[in-house]
């Protein structure tokens, strides 16, 4: 046999396995895995002695801003950032201008993004309520990875951009939907069988409490938290999980930030509701106590909460309540991220730093490498219907592979990020455990931090359409 690429002597890591072997790649697929040398010649070979070979990591929550505010980010740069950070597949969020809201905008988006993609990608469709309930079935047919409802946000009437700092009476703004209208989204998504992902913060609670605290003139981080408290997540997650149980819609709670949110999800799962959940590195590695050091960059919605929430989220990962870790890569420029806490947009880039931060946490004993492959490869692939094509190292599946060096040390530097918006809360953080090679369908896209191939990423669709 003539192999296209042979990765020798690495330690294979999946949620269930941990062993030394060589991987043989042919035509973009994993053709064989063996602990004995197989016959044949290799066009290309890597010696991964001392390194770990993981199923390609998946980031289910990325805002690439393309088309739309591409001065913040575009798909060329977001997918380079992903590849640089060891990610082989991203799911791109639909809050673009225009948003991915019907079959026509889905197909236009595939055409727009494919020539820029350095990694493979799934596309979220947006759920706008009465404005596109009628389009959810065609979006399902077209191949969306799931539907996203931005619960808690108002959106601009013309551009559909999120309104980060909503106040009643603002011009050109569509106010958040009523509970009944949200339930109708659940009913319609249930018919498609796709996952419905929610940003879970209660908008009317946030509005009232934010107005109260703003009146006091405070601009500190605790004031932001008083305006968007744990309660805002708790009540929306409770309602969302009840809506999921009643409608049958497969709910995915995005970026869980609180002990209360995690507990509500645990409760719903115990009752048999079809609910999954993710959290993000900023909720696992930061708390309100970091704000004095990090500053306004740390404004992310939902906001990073308290030390006790951070502990509760690790607990929820360990007991299986939270099964996915995503980045919520949400770039804004350094200029946009400085200024008054009430006025600046929420979000921060993260797809390049998520794997290094999680690998560092493995070295710190917070989780095992096998658990990491569950959280970042197998579980997302299974939940969104792309397993085992993605998220596995099974023979016959896509040769998406992330090679990591657990002894390698690095320092995260904002200036070195591949994103257009060179912003991170982790500037200067020392990391031990680094992705050293990103392989997408057999092609090495990143080697030792350098982008060496692409763009040749492709759309991935759920198998269960
Ligand atoms: C995201 C963005 O900017 O698109 N911002 C954020 O703070 N997380 C939107 C979102 O995920 O809520
Ligand atoms: Zn969100
Ligand atoms: Zn997001």
Describe, in plain words, how this protein is organized in 3D.
There is one protein chain. This protein is an alpha/beta fold. The mean pLDDT is 97. The protein has helices at 75-84, 103-113, 136-142, 179-192, 203-215, 221-227, 230-247, 259-270, 281-285, 291-294, 307-318, 354-363, 369-383; strands at 2-3, 5-13, 18-26, 29-34, 41-42, 45-47, 52-55, 57-62, 87-92, 120-126, 146-149, 154-156, 162-163, 173-174, 195-198, 250-253, 275-279, 324-325, 401-411, 430-440, 443-447, 450-451. It starts with a strand and ends in a 14-residue tail after the last strand. One zinc ion is lined by residues 61, 63, 93, 328, 330. Pathway: Nitrogen metabolism; (S)-allantoin degradation; allantoate from (S)-allantoin: step 1/1. One of its GO terms (molecular function) is allantoinase activity.
Features:
8-stranded parallel beta sheet; binds zinc ion; TIM Barrel; allantoinase activity; alpha/beta; 465 residues; single chain; binds N-carbamoyl-L-aspartate; 9-stranded mixed beta sheet
